[in-house]
Amino acid sequence: MIYLSAHRLKLLNMTAPYVLLVTENVSIESIAELESHNITVHHTSFFTVPHAKKEAKYHYTKLRLWSMTEYDVIMYLDLDILPIRDLTPFFQCGSFCATFRHSDKFNAGLLVLKPNLTVYEDLLAKAPELSTYDGGDQGFMNSYFDQLKFTPMFDHEHPNSQKYESDQRRLSAAFNYDIAMYYINGGKLLVDPAIFHYTMGPLKPWIWWTYPLFDLNEYWSTARKEMEIYHNTPNPDIQLAYFTVLVCICALIFRKVSESTNQVFLMCTPNIACLF
Question: Which Gene3D superfamilies is this protein grouped with (predicted)?
C-alpha cells in the first residue's frame, strides 16, 4: 500500500516529496526498505489520550503533523486512498482543508494543512478535553475545527483566484471520494473523482475476492500492475492463478481418494462404534 501510493503520486507528476510518518516500533530493516524506494521517513513518537477507543488509541499520533514545520504545506493521505489525478492544486487551499462527504462531519483520511507550532501545542492540550464522536482523532478534529463546515469551498480549477476569502476551506467530495457513495447511487459517479477512498471496512481492494463484487476495486488492481511492471516485481494475479489451480488439483485428488476407499466418517461416543 505504501509503495503503491508513492508510485501513483509520482506517476501523476507530483514533485512534492512523499513522506511517511513512522513511530518507534518500526524496525530499522523496514525503514531501510522504505528509503530504498525513495520514500522520505519522518520519525515521530506515539501520542494518545486516555478516553480514546482501543482501536483508535494511536490515531491521535496524526496530530504530530502540525509540528513538522520544515514543510510549508502537508497533504495527509490514508493508505486506503488511490490518487486518480494530479493533486498538486490542492496544496493551495489554505491552513486547514478537509472534505465533508455525506454529513456535517469531515473525514480525516485526507487533510491539507500548514504546520504551526502554536496550533500544534493547542491541539495536544485540548485533545484530552474535547469530545470525539467516534472515540478517535477524526471526532476530536471535528470538535477542534468546528467552524470548518461554514467556510467556502476551495475552487481547485482556479487555485490562484478564489471567489471568497478564507484561511480554511472545505474541499469537494471529488477530492476525497468515498466509494460507498458510488454503490449507494446505483453505480454512478456524481463527481469526477481526484481520488478513490476505499472506506468499506473489510472490503478493501487488496483483498482478492472483492474484485467480482466491487468494480471500483479494479482501479487499485490496475495501478498495482502498473507499479509492478515499472519495478519488475511479481504479478500477484499470476501467483493467485497458480494457487487457485493448485487448490483445484488437490480437491480433485482428495475426491478421487475418498470415492475409491468408500470411507464413512462418524462422530465417536462411548456408546457408538466408529466406522472408517
Answer: Spore Coat Polysaccharide Biosynthesis Protein SpsA, Chain A
